[in-house]
Amino acid sequence: xxxxxxxxxxxxxxxxxxxxxxxxxxxxxxxxxxxxxxxxxxxxxxxxxxxxxxxxxxxxxxxxxxxxxxxxxxxxxxxxxxxxx
Amino acid sequence: xxxxxxxxxxxxxxxxxxxxxxxxxxxxxxxxxxxxxxxxxxxxxxxxxxxxxxxxxxxxxxxxxxxxxxxxxxxxxxxxxxxxxxxxxxxxxxxxxxxxxxxxxxxxxxxxxxxxxxxxxxxxxxxxxxxxxxxxxxxxxxxxxxxxxxxxxxxxxxxxxxxxxxxxxxxxxxxxxxxxxxxxxxxxxxxxxxxxxxxxxxxxxxxxxxxxxxxxxxxxxxxxxxxxxxxxxxxxxxxxxxxxxxxxxxxxxxxxxxxxxxxxxxxxxxxxxxxxxxxxxxxxxxxxxxxxxxxxxxxxxxxxxxxxxxxxxxxxxxxxxxxxxxxxxxxxxxxxxxxxxxxxxxxxxxxxxxxxxxxxxxxxxxxxxxxxxxxxxxxxxxxxxxxxxxxxxxxxxxxxxxxxxxxxxxxxxxxxxxxxxxxxxxxxxx
Lengths: 85, 430
Hints:
The complex is a heterodimer of chains A (85) and B (430).
Chain A: E1 4-9, E2 12-17, H1 22-28, E3 34-35, E4 41-42, E5 55-58, E6 61-65, E7 76-78, H2 80-84
Parallel strand pairs in A: 1-7
Antiparallel strand pairs in A: 1-2, 3-4, 5-6, 5-7
Chain B: E1 5-14, H1 18-29, E2 34-38, H2 58-70, E3 73-76, E4 79-85, E5 88-93, E6 96-107, E7 111-113, E8 126-127, H3 129-137, E9 147-152, H4 155-165, E10 173-175, H5 179-188, H6 193-205, E11 211-212, E12 215-221, E13 228-233, E14 236-241, E15 244-249, E16 251-253, H7 256-260, E17 265-266, E18 269-270, E19 283-285, H8 294-309, H9 313-317, H10 320-336, E20 352-354, E21 359-360, H11 361-365, H12 370-377, H13 389-397, H14 413-423
Parallel strand pairs in B: 1-2, 1-6, 2-3, 6-19, 8-15, 9-10, 9-15, 10-11
Antiparallel strand pairs in B: 4-5, 5-6, 7-16, 12-13, 13-14, 17-18, 20-21
Helix pairs in contact in B: 1-2, 1-8, 3-4, 5-10, 8-10
């Protein structure tokens, strides 16, 4: 089965194959997942739920590790930059 | 599973990788009630991530089928955060939490990659070697991308092979170990013929990809993401353009949950007896946390732990001889991929060591122990709770880790509130 799902990353739609993790959708959208405490852009490091660099807000739930969650149709993803703005 | 429920299992297994699956299947086949919890969306752990179809690892689909047939209850997407009382663990997911009551517990939390700091390692698209592989398994398009693979350990070759099969271009694999120890490693593999076959197959598949020993990354450069990497290649400094740097320095056991449950740890590994039982009563441990030995050892230890937890010690004994041989491989890995001291001097003053709190190398250098660094700089006090920078500071400064305090992962306020209610003697379940 190769169906696709559409999620939004900071409001912009991203179409990904089903089974794609949210962290991958964010990288595909060209976004950093978060800003570090000194303002550096950060993306996923460990890919397995250890490092917390991929934390974003998903459907309003903040601080969720996006590497351990699969994209679902209509999911709203907000990177930290967008939550603060 | 509904939120705020309490579930009871005779044997509860934490971790759905090879060790956890073997333990759960073996215990459930003995007729006891078994539950297995994993924080990923599906079974397989890291090594068998996305392999339930058995495309690359036929063993993976075999074990997934065996777990399903065994009758063990599989709870994916749940993360254990705390032990509120003896014999009970608290787990949570995005929508709530639950309590898991157990008679015997088998811990199989696996291992994570060791990272080392160097200038530019915090740039986006610099990932772990296993980290990038996990991302590609989760859908990251890698075709046509240039990926430098660096670090140490057998994982590097496996990752390079996987990425190349998915269309990536690998300009270079940097292995920090020297040719001499790699050659010794190759010769010693005679004891494990299956691993020689694996190794030769990898070598054949990776034909044309330059593998450099005595080599490591010096710095990653780029504006918003990594664009090129400076490497020390057998003593020569080279600049190589790339789209990704996949960099991991072998593995470190995940011992946080075992520590929380009071299991004794020595040399960074959970101590177990011949039946994989820890020093904490009714708690067993299997797989990478007892020693980094790979999937074969993990499966054997998982089966022993599962059988012993179900009370079948005689059947468990049947695996002892095989385990002994597999443990030899763990020792060989440890000897071959020991980190060289040059890697301690990659950081500059401003290089970030603790990524959660942006603590630089120069700030850490002023401290003499982990505790002091934590108190004064917040190193290791962020979301990852020192999982990334802890092993680094152990290598860089020889700092010893502290005790582990609950919750073992950052937890939701409502999960913690349930604990508070419990302390006040009120029922947790609605």
